[in-house]
Amino acid sequence: MKLAVFAYHDIGFECLDFLVQAKDEIIAVVTHEDDPNEEIWFRSVADLARRRALPLYQPENPNTPAFIDRIRSAGPDIIFSFYYRLLFSKELLAIPPLGAMNLHGSLLPRYRGRAPVNWALVNGETETGVSLHHMVEKADAGDIVAQKRVAIDRADTALTLYRKLTQAARELLEETYPAIQAGKAPRIHQDARLATKFGGRRPEDGKIEWEMPAPVIYNLIRAVTHPYPGAFTIHCGKKLFVWWAVVESDDRVREAPGTILAIEMGSGVVVATGAGRLLLKRLQLEGEEELPADLFAERQGLRIGVRLEAP
User: Fold this and answer.
1) Rounded distance between C-alpha atoms, residue 56 and residue 38, angstroms
2) Per-position b or e across 81-116, b if 16+ CB within 10 A of its CB
3) pLDDT band for position 137 (50/70/90)?
């Protein structure tokens, strides 16, 4: 069987690595050029393809007539997409006789769209997973081949959860590949009535609204902490990044949201929220070094009663 593999990120790396070991012919590996403005903390699909001497392509747009002709002439039986970031045209999807399949980082039909890992944490979900599905022109809407569930721990960040999903993605592909090879991949219809869709996240979406309850703010912080752009508030006219925090209580407090209630040496900085107290653990003022919150308070002169403001 001939495969065209469109892949990026760690999930793309792991799934491509499995397909290499499966010994079917990989006639094209299509990936992205890394964005110089993006923190590249994940493994390189391009490097893996080069090490394995696989045909490698990195087009800006895979849907041009010239590139579609190139894939068509290679004659893939199936197209796979593993965390590749661009949608495919109907002309590209029509090439392989066994169809095209995509690996998505949620339990479809929930969390269609971009950044499903981050959004699941922002929304306080306790479970997510990965879905392998047949591709159609509409993003993440095709029939499901199979899914694997993954529990979300209370201490998970986007990074730790993504690593869980990466392992689950490889396991799911390993389990379903024999049926795919035999041309018997299941087709489980998605119920569009249950679908939720979220867009990509921007750095400015990390702003903290102190009026929100402490658990909600905590979910935002863990969803966008390293290696993502981070949750932030404002101090002395600059962004103050909160890289880690824990919920100290979720009961209502008298003080205005954003007010510093305590500075606990060896522990952190306690801040009032719309419902409860949040213990800030690691802070970084824009342009300066990241510090434990108590040390940051000492160096920056934070005082009890100071109110942090959302932009």
Assistant:
1) 22
2) bbbbeebbeeebbebbebbbbbbbbbbbbbbbbbbb
3) very high
Instruction: Report whether 100 contacts 134 (CB < 8 A).
Output: yes
Q: Which residues contact 129 (CB under 8 A, 6 or more apart)?
A: 106, 107, 147, 148, 149, 150, 165, 168
Enter the tokens of residue 274: 């719309």
Domains of the chain: 2-198 (3.40.50.170), 203-300 (3.10.25.10)
Backbone angles phi, psi at 277, to 5 degrees: -115, 140
CA distance 107 to 150: 9
DSSP string computed for 218-259: HHHHHHH-TTS--EEEEETTEEEEEEEEEEEE-S--SSPTTB
Integer Cα distance of 61 and 68 in angstroms:
10
276 closest CA partner among 239, 255, 249, 310 = 249
With 90 as the cut, is the pLDDT of residue 178 above it?
yes
pLDDT for residue 309: 85
Q: Average pLDDT, stretch 201-223?
A: 96
- Identify the residue whose tokens are 């404002």: 234
pLDDT band at 253 (very low <50, low <70, confident <90, very high): confident
> Residue 64: CB partners within 8 Å, gap ≥ 6?
none
What are the start-end ranges of the H helices in 23-131?
45-51, 65-74, 90-93, 116-122
